Amino acid sequence: MSNIFIPVSEPNITQKEVDYVLDAVRSGWISSLGEYISKFEDKFARFLGVKYAVSVSSGTAGLHLALLAIGVGQGDEVIIPDLTFVATANAVTYTGASPVMVDVDPLTWCIDPLSIIKAVTPRTRCIIPVHLYGQPADMDTIGDIARKHKLVVIEDSAEAHGALYKGKRTGSIGACGVFSFYGNKIVTTGEGGMVTTNDKSLFVRLEFLRDHAMSKEKRYWHEELGFNYRLTNLQAALGLAQLERIEELLEKKKQIFNLYRDLLKDVKMISLNPQVSWAENVFWMVCLLLDKRSPVSRDEMALKLKQAGIDTRPFFYPLSKMPLFKNAKNVNNPISNDLSARGLNLPSATTLKLSDVYYIAKTIKEILS
Ligand SMILES: *Cc1c(COP(=O)(O)O)cnc(C)c1O
């Protein structure tokens, strides 16, 4: 066993983050009122080019709130990709609606528009494309399908802060965008999230439901079920500092991916993240996809990298394979199954040293030779 340890992910915290958080603590505004919250929300909305941004306690809370604001509930169906983090499906389940997992597109690894069309029923209310590992989904085609069938689109942009779809930021295209600020995401607040929208009425509903659905006119008066999904001023202070550095963080992600790509470009039996002409991937995670004919399996690759001190993560399991969703419809999604079995996340932290990328690439080549 080596004494090297290169993590898959690590937060990138500088003096700026420390200063802002200390300032927030010292101000006494440590709960969910305070100026960092509105500064963070305003700056996030401006960064995305949307009218409204509502901070929330997690990305999962953000998805739940967005679905509730749209009015999704019992008896409805929500179409999501099979290959995603469980939070996308869980948020749908919380509302009483059923998640319908459909296959992904082999080109983008994101939800496949043709599979959406096949899954639409009279009960379908909403589609949640996920911009997986930083790669934008095919939003124009998804938007056309949604308009035709009168469905609402919520973008799960938890892994794609700053990504571009035809020049527009992901999270600014659907009725709502949802972001996560978990510790391994491109911008972090520890735990936290954001819901973005251009729709005033959705914005009003989001703020209302986030804060116990308390009447605006009458304090402690509640006419419907609400939630405490608020972000704290301390978390927003951390988030604002991160957001002020987002160009630097995105540049670092790109630099890391480009170096991996250059060092591994002649290696047979592997490929990396998708890149398409109409979108800009932010490479939240650098992904290694082993060929079907690779002599080394994904799990063998992960084990050998671990022995060299290199941490990795397997791709998400298809949600439809989990006992939790054993009653879901559309459970045969071959592309999701195949990618899930062959994909591995490599160290991708913005704190990663370029010399580590050389070491990782060299180790991958040795394992495959
Ligand atoms: C991280 C993530 C979430 C949930 O975020 P939390 O902040 O951890 O609740 C949702 N969807 C996807 C695709 C994610 O990667």
The fraction of residues in strands falls at 5-15%
Main-sheet strand order equals: 1-9-8-5-4-2-3
Q: What CATH architecture label of the largest domain applies?
A: 3-Layer(aba) Sandwich
Ligand inventory: pyridoxal-5'-phosphate
- Say which CATH homologous superfamily of the largest domain is assigned: Type I PLP-dependent aspartate aminotransferase-like (Major domain)
Helices, by number, come to 12
Give the proportion of residues in helices.
Answer: 25-40%
The total number of structural domains is 2
Query: Quick one: how many beta strands?
Result: 14
Query: Would you identify the regions where 5 or more consecutive residues have pLDDT less than 50?
Result: none
Mean pLDDT: 97
* SS class: alpha/beta
Termini gap: 21 Å
- Could you tell me the radius of gyration in angstroms? 21 Å
Give the C-level CATH assignment of the largest domain: Alpha Beta
**CATH topology of the largest domain, which one?**
Aspartate Aminotransferase, domain 2
- Order of helices and strands, N to C? HHEHEHEHEHEEEEEHHHEEEHEHEH
